[in-house]
Amino acid sequence: MTSSSPFFYRLTDGIRVTVRPVFLPEQSIPEQHQFVFAYYVRVENVGTQAAQLLSRRWRIHDSIGEDSEVAGDGVVGEQPLIVPGGVHAYQSFCVLKSASGYMEGEYRFIRSDATRFDAVIPRFVLAADEWTGGKKSTN
Fold it and tell me: Cβ of 54: how many Cβ atoms within 10 Å?
């Protein structure tokens, strides 16, 4: 297992989205094709106008070839208003059937002047390093 998790980020129209994925071996059951990943998201307004996060759309790719999409209002039950210099952070998770894949997507925002825009969620890699080589790590 790697000692630190990579960060992925993207800046779109004054909104910086940073994601850090982490494999959760204690929650996973590889023998049953269940690989659980947490991801920590930081949404920062580096622009000059407040923006409210209205909705999200995630595209999830599993290395076995399965693709899925998840869309909905807000993030973890919230539609935060992020002022200039402000940050909204949260964590969530996903379950893959294989030891690797990726996620990407976008957040839909509305600014204080009523303009709407999509902020890109960068593609980030989900990798259970100790399983991707076909061998288990041991404690």
Answer: 13
- The DSSP annotation for 82-104 comes to E-TT-EEEEEEEEEESSSEEEEE
User: What distance in Å separates the CA atoms of residue 38 and residue 1, rounded to the nearest whole number?
Assistant: 15
Cα separation values, 122 from 18, 25, 40, Å: 8, 24, 13
Contacts of 85 (CB under 8 A, 6+ apart): 45, 46
56-97: pLDDT as tens digits: 999 999 999 999 999 999 999 999 999 999 999 999 999 999
Query: Could you give all domains of the chain from N- to C-terminal order, each with its CATH number?
Result: 8-128 (2.60.40.1470)
Amino acid residing at 19:
V
